[in-house]
Structure formats: C-alpha cells, structure tokens
C-alpha cells in the first residue's frame, strides 16, 4: 500500500513554485506540478508536471482529479513594477488571476480537497499606509478600509476573501500568506517581469567595475526582501498549522532601493554610480510586520538580506555571462 503523501503545486513553472516542488520532494511527497509552461531555469523535480491553462475550468478538473494531502495555489499573472504599475496589463492581471482562483476553489470543493494554501501579496495593503518610507504600516489588520495602489493588489484582496468564503461555507482549510518581495536564484531576471533584487543584480553584473547603473525613482523608496528558502519555510508551516491567516510572510529588514544597490555592488566588488530616472515605483515604503506570524506560528524569518543576495547575485551573474558568451 502506498502511504506517501501527495501534494499539488499550481504555478510550479514559476520561481517560488519551482523551489516549493524541490522542498516537498525532499520531504518525501509525491508531487504534481501544474503551470502554463515549464520553468525555463531549472529542470522540474515534480513526479508529474502538467502543462495546463488554469483559466480553463476543464483543465483544472483534470489536474485536481483527486484529494491531495496538500494543495498550494501560487499560479497568477504577475511581474515586477515594470509590469504591474504601468496600467497596461490591468485587465489581464485581474481576469487571469481571478479566473484561476475561482476555478481552483470550485474544483477543490467538488473533489473534497481539505487543505489549500493561497499566496496573496503585500500589494493588497492600503496605499495611504505606505506613503512614509520610514514608517510603513503593513500590520495584517491594517488591510481595511481597502485602498491598494494597483489592480494586482485589488485582485489579491478579492481572492483572499474568496478563499476565506470557501473556508467558511465549505469547510476547506484555507491558509493565506501575504508575500513580501520574494527573491532568489532560478527566477525571472530579465525581460520586464523581474522584481527589484533580480533587476539590480542583473544591472550590477552587466556594469563595469566602476560603471553606472540606472534605477527608477530617487532610490529612497523602502522595501524588505525575503529569500525564497525562508518563504517556503513560512508557507509550509502555515499550511500545516491551525491558523488560517492572512499573515505576512516577509522579512522585516527594511532597506532603501539605493541601499539595495550598494549592497549588491559590494557583493560584486564594484564601485558604481547610481543614475536615477522616472519609472513605475509602487508605494513609497513597505516592510513586513512580523508580530502576528511570531505569535501564531512561533516563527519568523531571520536570515540577513546579504546572505540571500550573495546566492542570488552569483546565479544571475552566471546567467549574464552565459548570455554574453
């Protein structure tokens, strides 16, 4: 009799999903991964990888064809500031991601899936609480009255409520995390959908030892960045806990974007000049408030930003050199 636990990872062709599959395999799970495409940067370790469009309800019924012990819903239409904040992709972002979540929950309810994780985002927090770069308010209970700064954030907030509604009405044990800027190797690093750490690592890797790099805005906007391994630790702890959330999964080591550039340049051993230019920025300040996760899970991220950036820069530098060869 096969007693191995099974897990389903939707969004397994993406950055976080790919790493999550690896972690679940290390833990001994049988894993099915699903995505529109395979991960372009690493071979999947999933036992079964299905290329499918989760906007198609029929495709969702085919991949959620049984009860899984753990279901992780990370699939979404997303990207960095250059994708989310221009306004050019708003309809796609809202329609695609909401449709996926509606399909997934409908099928999970009909298949008797008992437990599901949903990856929300810190982008759902009100813009008016993130205007002061030195004192942003991202406590979980600050979400309402709602006023996200992007349609991406509004869709995440709607989908949080959707998962909570299925929890109340159908007894699905939903677990919701609000991710704060997850980064690491094997993620998008060029092409317009990359996040700030990857974009900056790429620009630093491409620059000469005493060159110049360009960043959007004055560089005084603040953020915190969480290395992917700690993200997965928080994710799996939350799913296996008795706490529904929503809860922040992020670092509380806040830096300015200028400081992020300086840190990466230092790792690379380069003395670089920053040239600021206009561009899409998002909120002025954001930092993970980790009081609730410590209280409810007895855990919070502790790894320094530098350690994660060293690993990420080394990987992106390899990609840059390979492309130039």
Layout of helices and strands, plus pairs?
Elements: E1 6-10, H1 15-26, E2 30-35, E3 48-51, H2 57-63, E4 70-73, H3 81-84, H4 90-111, E5 115-121, H5 151-170, E6 173-179, E7 182-183, H6 196-206, E8 212-216, E9 222-223, E10 226-227, H7 228-239, E11 247-249, E12 255-256, H8 257-268, E13 273-277, H9 291-297, H10 305-324
Structural class: alpha/beta
Largest sheet properties: 7 strands, parallel
User: Would you identify the CATH H-level superfamily of the largest domain?
Assistant: NAD(P)-binding Rossmann-like Domain
CATH topology of the largest domain, anyone?
Rossmann fold
Through-space gap between termini: 51 Å
Helix content: 25-40%
Integer-rounded radius of gyration: 19 Å
Apparent shape: globular
Element order: H for helix, E for strand: EHEEHEHHEHEEHEEEHEEHEHH
User: What is the mean predicted local confidence, pLDDT?
Assistant: 93
The CATH level-2 architecture of the largest domain is identified as 3-Layer(aba) Sandwich
Physical arrangement of strands within the biggest beta sheet: 3-2-1-4-5-6-11
CATH class of the largest domain: Alpha Beta
Query: How many DSSP H or I helices?
Result: 10
Query: Regarding quaternary structure, how should these chains be classified?
Result: single chain
- How many domains comprise the coordinates? 2
The total count of strands amounts to 13
Strand content: 15-25%
- What low-confidence regions span 5 or more consecutive residues with pLDDT below 50? none
